[in-house]
Amino acid sequence: MIDVLYCGNSGVFDGVLTSMLSIFKRSRKDDFRFFVFTMDLTRCKESYTPISDELISFLDQVAKHYGENNVVKKIDVTALYEKEMGRSPNEGAYCSPYTLLRLLADLVPEVDGEKLLYLDCDILFNRDIHLLYEQDVEGVEYAAARDHYGKFLLYPNYINAGVLLFNMKKCRETGLFPKTRVWINKKKLTFADQSALVRSTTKKKMLPQKFNDQKFLHKSTVVRHFSKRLFYLPYPHTDNIKQWHVDKVHRVFKYHAFDDILSEYLALKDEYLAGKDAYGGK
User: Within the chain, which residues score under 50 in pLDDT?
Assistant: First the structure.
């Protein structure tokens, strides 16, 4: 059984769907539990509504198409968030407050496995997920790859928190998650949850960049992370192209390696918008 965690509001549907499809299409068969932490934070922003049961049901149908034991489970952590991090200095950080939800993983009883793979929603697997999930994390709190820009601008082993393989037993022993929540409540941090994790870590395992490639796609790339990046042409600028921006993936990145995934995503999204069950059911 492989446990995967996503976090977000009603806007994460495209990311979770494409990411899940990439796992199924690039990996050998296994049983998957996909947790989606969500919350109602409309007190901060009107669009901060939880992902709906209807969207979760559709994602669950997709997962079960690839394996009858697969499940997508929605966990509403609104009450937990308000108790642990509500109105913290980092609630209005550069990124969505939904990125903070991964820091509640130790308080959710349903998350009971030895390992938990946290993924940002803007990632696609280019190779088998087992290459990542089967990494040895004995004696460390988590395994992560370097942040593409942070390793130059901050320090060489600065991690990107978009792909994190947690050793949940070790995290509970060291109190990693409670320590991160203390930091979140204590002061405004440059990179919010990522900074809190870095400051709270006792011991981590550094993974090769291929497990969280934030800029390039190589044959060896296991995870392509479609995070905001710098482009030098036709003039220096940043852009935040996500995998569900299919036209830009083709036109700007000139990627076609994910076409089977993106084609199925587009077809499934049409099914959902037409009010049908996954794969054309009524």
Answer: none
